[in-house]
Amino acid sequence: MRTKKKIEIDKFDKFFEESNDLCEKFYNVSMNNSLTNSIGIRVAEFPFNRESELQYKLNTQDLNITAVKGLTYFKQYFPISGNTQYRVLLYGDDKKVYINQLFYESGDMDWLYGLTFNSSPITLAYKKNDADAIILSSTDKMVVWRTDYAPYTIENVPIITSMCMNEGVLYCTIKEPAFKIWYATDLDVENIGQINNNSGYISLEDDLGYARKVVTFDESVYVFRDYGITKITNYKRENSISQIYKSNTMIYCDTVSVCGNLIFFMTKDGVYSFNGVKVSKTNIDLSDLLTGDMSNASASSLGSKYFVALKLNFNDDKEILCEMTEHKNNAVLVVDITDESYQIIRGIDIQSFLPVKTDKFEKMLVTFNSIYETEVGEIVQDSVCFDRELSKYWRIDNLTKDMNTKLFTSLKIDSKEDTQININFDNKKLTFYTYQNGVNKFNFKVCSSDCSVEVLSEKDLKVDKIEIDYYEY
Among 92, 195, 345, 455, which is most exposed with the fewest C-beta within 10 angstroms? Predict the structure, then answer.
């Protein structure tokens, strides 16, 4: 007599750690004890003032732009008044820089001092002589804006691709030649590109490739390169360098971001972390999804979350939101660094992330490559993209594990929302729909050596438990 057996899932975040024989695929869902909605995107909103619960949206519609091409944020403290002002700066495809001052009752965007740039400027906020300042550096010029005077322009500087500050020294990677790191002591930014007592360059001509990004981390400077990481140590105005890590595959340096006490980045092999000494590959398995095209990938971090916009291949015939038209990215990977759990958001073409932290709130802003390219969005705990629901999908394969034939007889699903369930076997499919709030049971007979289960929803998702009964042959 055959014995009935059961596959039982009641802790979605732990089940697959203990059942390595089963293969899981998912997007636009969050897995904790339950299977629920993922994060999403809505139009960015800000409080009218520090006491207000009413919110305003950035007024980009009145600007003469067809796309937001850059976004940055910084705060300025004014010692005379004792006030701190928080500013969002926007760069449009009209080449102008616009500003909105948070907590000042309006979403209007004003043209900042008549500034224009030939390309979206690289930015860095810093402090000199107790004055907050921001550097904006583009392909045509560098602009420095301090609280104590209007922005001023510095001509004839190299095209900067990244910047960081450490111990009063500014470090920059440049577009060409990309093996040079320029530096300026005493934060004299106008000296970048010149060799004198306060500035110069470090040449990195070795087998780690070009220098793409500089990062301040744990009181040191790390240079992320095509195939490795170099550490710069500054002691008594003397720079020394050391190779920290050599990679077998190219590092996508636009995915480098400091998150908590680690730096995260991606290669074509997946997600890695770096603690200042050692590089470790995370347990995040994207091997079936990575396309090798990371030319438009970008990343940032907020709190314990690491966000990456990238292009993934979901290996199906579906087209979700941005995939229906031309796009550069189609997914967002969100990693919780506390336990390396992650979500995959599909159907959103994000260009860049911008973390914003004030004394009243913090949020992650986003800009877009397509569809919503005139908008500024924010990450929310709601599985939507603006006013559109994200299609939710979760699947387990290899239910037979050893590929021996099994007889599957029933499935129970405890669902709080309308849910579709597909049983896939031998190129066939059975489809069921939940008929009540709570436990739903479906009886069937499927004899197969290749069986999988899919859970789908176009609206809210809340699945607490799945049970699958079967008999061994």
Answer: 195
Tell me the C-alpha to C-alpha distance, in Å, between residue 448 and each of 54, 273, 398, 427, 467.
Answer: 57, 41, 11, 11, 18
Please give the Cα distance from 439 to 414 (Å, whole number): 4
Q: What is the pLDDT of residue 15?
A: 60
Of 356, 370, 385, give the one whose Cα is nearest residue 296: 370
Burial 345-371 (b: 16+ CB within 10 A, else e): bbbbbbbbbbbbebeeeebbbbbbbbb
Peptide bond into 177 cis (omega under 30): yes
Maximum C-alpha span of the chain: 88
CA 243 to chain centre: 27
Q: Which spans in 240-396 are helix H?
A: none
CA distance 161 to 174: 5
Strand-pairing partners, residue 83, are 78
Segment 437-452, tens digit of pLDDT: 999 999 999 998 888 8
- Extract the tokens encoding 17: 């750690």
The sign of the torsion formed by the CA atoms of 82, 88, 92, 95 equals: positive
Six token digits for residue 204? 């990195």
What is the Cα gyration radius of the chain?
A: 26
Residues 361, 428 within the same domain: no
* Tens digits of residue pLDDT in 231-256: 998 776 778 899 999 999 999 999 99
- Residue range of the domain that includes 13: 4-38+393-472
* Domain end call among 390, 407, 436: 390
278 CB-contact burial (10 Å; exposed 0-12 / middle 13-18 / buried 19+): exposed
Residue 186 CB contacts under 8 Å (≥ 6 apart), including other chains: 168, 198
194/313 same-domain check: yes
Q: What is the CATH number of the domain that holds 71?
A: 2.130.10.10
d(CA 67, CA 48): 25
Chain centroid, CA 198 distance in Å: 36
Backbone dihedral angles phi then psi of residue 321, each to the nearest 5 degrees:
45, -105
Q: Which residue has the tokens 């809505």?
A: 42
Go through 86-95 and write b for each residue having 16 or more CB atoms within 10 A of its CB, e for each that does not. bbbbbbbbeb
Distance between CA atoms of residues 169 and 162, nearest Å: 14
Pick from 16, 13, 76: which is nearest to 396 by CA?
16
Q: How far apart are CA 77 and CA 166, in angstroms?
A: 21
In this prediction the pTM is 0.94
29 and 77 housed in the same domain: no
CA-based nearest residue to 351, from 364, 363, 327, 367: 367
Which of 356, 390, 424 marks a domain boundary? 390
> Tokens standing for 131?
């004055």
